[in-house]
Structure formats: C-alpha cells, structure tokens
Amino acid sequence: MRLDLSGVSVRLDGRPIVHEADLVVDDGEFVALVGPNGCGKSTLMRTIYRALRPSAGLITVDGDDVHRLSWRESARRTAVVAQETPAELDFTVGEVVLMGRTPYERAAAADEERCARALDRVGLGGGEERGYATLSGGEKQRALIARALVQETRLLLLDEPTSHLDIRHQLEILHLVRELGVATLAVLHDLNQAAAFCDRLYVMSAGRVLAGGPPEQVLTPELISQVYGVRAVRRTQLVFERLAL
Amino acid sequence: MTGDTLAPAARLASTTPSGRRRRRYILLVAALAVAVVASTWLAVSIGAVHVALPQAWAIVADHLAPGVVARTWTPVQEQIVWEYRLPRALLALLVGAGLSVVGAVLQALVRNPLADPFLLGISSGASCGAVLVLVLGYSTLGGLSLSGAAFAGSLLALGLVYVLAQRAGRITPSRLVLAGVALAYLFQSLYSFVLQQAQSGRAAQQVLFWLMGSLGGARWEMLPLPSAVLAAGLVYLLLQHRQLNALTAGEETAVSLGVNVHRLRLTLFVLTSLLVGVLVATSGAIAFVGLIVPHAARLLVGADHRRVLPVTALLGAAFLQLVDVAARTVNAPQELALSIVTALFGVPFFLWLLRRRSVDRAVTVG
Fold first, then answer.
1. Exposure pattern of A203-226 as b/e (b: 16+ CB <10 Å)?
2. pTM surpassing 0.90?
3. Residue A236 belongs to a domain
4. Inter-chain residue contact B255 with A49, CB threshold 8 Å
5. Residues A96, A144: contact at Cβ < 8 Å?
6. Is residue B2 situated within a structural domain?
7. Nearest CB to A126: which of B6, B253, B257?
8. What is the CATH number of the domain that holds B263?
9. CATH number, domain at A22?
10. Domains in chain B: how many in total?
C-alpha cells in the first residue's frame, strides 16, 4: 500500500486552496498532517477521498489514479473518519458500523461477524443495538473507526478525529489507530500529539506543503514560528502520557 | 476503559437483542399487511349503499374466479363494489404508499426531516396543468385529460427544477429545495390567476376540491401506470437501501463509502418526481401523508432504509385507506377533501414530532 500525491492543486469556487502538494504515505506508516486553520489540510484530505476533484496533479493509491477508479473500488482502498458525524437519526451502532460494508456485496452473516469483531477492537463490544445518537463523543468516534475497520481498507484517513474530545479520549483514539497497523494519514491539531504519535509528518501553510519528515527534524522552532506565528520551546519530555486504566 | 466492553461469553447473549428486533420487525410487517387488507375490505363495504363484509368479499372473489361463490348480491351492489369502490380503494393504497415512500426518500435526499413530496414544486406543476384543463376546458388543450394535463405539468416542473438545481452538472440539496420552493410559488400564482379569471363558479369549485385531494375519480384504467411506477421505484429503492443509508449519514460519508452521490441524487430526484407526478395526476395534492408516515415508520423501526421503506409503504397505504373511508363517511353524502382529514391527523402528530429533540437538531444541522 502506498498513497502518493504529486503536484496536487485544488480550487474551491475558482479560488486556489491547495497548491502543488506532494505527499507520501507508505505501508503501515502513521503520517500526520499539521498546519494552521485554513491552510488547506482538510481540503487536501477531501480531495484524497474524492469529495473534491484536484485541478491539477495526481493522487494514486497502490499505483492507480484514485479519481479514475470506480467509486466502489476507491472506497475499498481508502476509509475515512472525519469530524462530520451522521445526522442525529435513529441508526443503531451496528447499522452505522455496517455502513462500512457499502462498497462490498452484501453478506449478512459474515458482515455481522465483521461488525462484532470491529466493535470489540474499538472497545464497544456487544454495543450493536445501542442508539448511535446516545453515544458519547469518544464512543461515536470509536464507532466510526469500527466502520472504517469493516471497510477493510489498507489506508485510513483521519480528518481531525479528536477535535471534539477531551485529552484522555484523544489519546485513546490515537493509540487505538496506531495499534491497528493500517497506513494512516491524520490531520491533527495538537503538535505535541502529532509529534508523539506519527512516524513522519507534513506541515502545511497557505495551501503549500512546506516540509515533511520525522517530527524532530521538521518541527523546528523556526518553522513553527514561520507557520503559526508563535514562539515554540522544545522540551525533551512528552507532556501527556496515557494512564494505564 | 470506557464503554461497556463485554467478555466473549456475554457476546452470545448480546446477539439476542438484534434477533428480538428482527422478530419484532417481521411481526410489524405482518400486522401492517393485515391492516392493509382489513382497511381495504372495510373501504369496499362501507358507503351510501351498504354491502355486508362477507358479501363484499364474495363479489370480489366472484370477479377473480367466476362461479366459485353463490350469488347473493344485487347487480347494483356488484356495480358499486367492483366498478367504484374497489378501484378507489386500490388507488388509495397506491397513493398512500407512493406519497409516503417519496417522503421518506426526499427526507434522505435533502437531509431534512421536513421534506415532503410537495417540496420540489412538482405537485404545483401538476396542479397547474389540472387547473388549466378544468377552467379552459378539454378542447383548448388539445383534448388532454385532467390527469394527462396534471402529469404534463409535473414533468414541466421536474424539468425546470432539474435545470435550476444544477450547477456544473451537480445537484445540491439546498439548490434543489430553493428551486422547488420558488417554482411552487410561481405555479401557485399562475393557477390562482387562472382560477380568479375563471367564469364558471362550478369549475372553480371542482378545481379547489381536486387541489385538496380526492380519490373520487378512481377507475380501473387509472391503476396500471401508478402501480407500475411504484413497484419499479420500490424495487430500485430497496436495492439501493445501503446507498440511501450512507446518504443519510452525509454526502462526504457516502462518497467515502463508495457511493456515486451525484448519480444517486439524480436518480432519486427523477424517480420521486415521476412518482409524485403520476400520483398527483390521479388524486390531486394530498397533504401531510408524505411528511408524517415516514417519521412514524422510523419511530417504529429506526433509520435503516431496508426496514423503513417497506414499513412506510404499508403504513401509508393503510393510513390513506382509512383517511378515504373517513372522508367518504364522516360528512356523507358530502365528501371531504382528503387533505382536510390528513391535516386533522397530521397536524397534532407533527406538533408532537416538533417537540422531539431529534427534529430540532437535524434542522439546524441539515
């Protein structure tokens, strides 16, 4: 599995939002995408999962141009967990997770089994019949990760998966995704978290990918002050550590 | 950890709720099917000329398999049951099921719980066509029948909404709703003008009655087209139930789940418009059915379209059958327009629905 973006530009209503972005995610890697609000991170993510079309450049997954694949086929290769949660309709958790099988032929019994296993993995085992709307924010996000799991893709896109969550649930979700071992590209807000969880990260600013590489090389005080306009002080110790519960 | 993590042993027990839900669903569908048959039976026997329940049944059986049942009824009874009440009752089922299913689909299509079959301006187009025929006379419009003109009007509206709702080849829900609402006002002002100019008070009366919905004109030959469109539509929608669910969860979610959202939206738009056009052409504009029945169905079986669609169709069919029975009998020999009766049921239900938190939230979000 390899996600490869080369020279990707995206326009929204004629305005250039992303400019010639290059980015790579290799098999099993956890790659973070960081940058200030409005820098084009989410637009770039939406272009990778085909909610938008690029105006120039090429996005390939496993060597194939994503935007030329059938809709089903691209959904079999890439799963998405975004901030957007389903409207407050009366879906059960099981029904939400089963949506992950939409790109495949229906197989009722096998799908229920997959759904049960995925819910186990995200710590919601046996919760199929609970109302999705009754879940807490962290549980909803985990149910959506379970949905991505039953989609059985080798690439996972996370668009600010932890933005509504408190610090403990943020860490839980990130640990969970890391342990899945699926190639992941995640938009993250918190630079400390990004540095702690990713193998590599990319920094975007004003529609351009400025730098990419291991966090300790990329996140220099100079770059951060250039991109965010804040002064950063590097400390050696990771600030938050998940409590063993 | 948070959440109710269960040990593997408890997992077996946890499958029971889903099994219980499945059994409940099957029971519900069976009960609704019985309700559809019973309400239709009732509709066929009740009226100015009374026909006892067994007799009504026997008349229908005699037509389906001549000579099997002994004849115990008068020719008048037979004529009334076979030529008037049965086609009317069957049309009630079709219209009730059709409008309700359209409502359910539109609520998913535009992601708004307040969507109903008349949202997209199609029915106003149909009404406009019908008004022109009724007021100007059949000959002026080249011999078009009332339902023919209504259907032509709905197709015209469909085409206009489609053109207006498009932008760069894509249909977006907000544009669909805005174009539909705007066109509805345009068509309404158009037929109001025609009505105002109409010389004959009788024609105006007839139009007003038709505009509020009536199954009084039902004949056998009106049934095949709506039946065919509804059957084809239902089959297609049931095959697409997972795509519909994904669309309900949001456009981008649907895309990421492999749904060709733009093609799905276009198909749903054309399908629902055709259905509304065909149904409004036979029965006029019947309010509230398409709004409340899908909500009632979701209260019963949740949001999954695999269950919502069949329950919506059956519930809508039985509901409109009873509404029509009430419309014929409450103020006999005068008939009430169907929208009056559906509104009497619909408004209280709707207000109750508004008090539920989910609608509130979905409206602000959607």
1. bbbebbbebbeebeebbeeebbee
2. no
3. no
4. yes
5. yes
6. no
7. B6
8. 1.10.3470.10
9. 3.40.50.300
10. 1
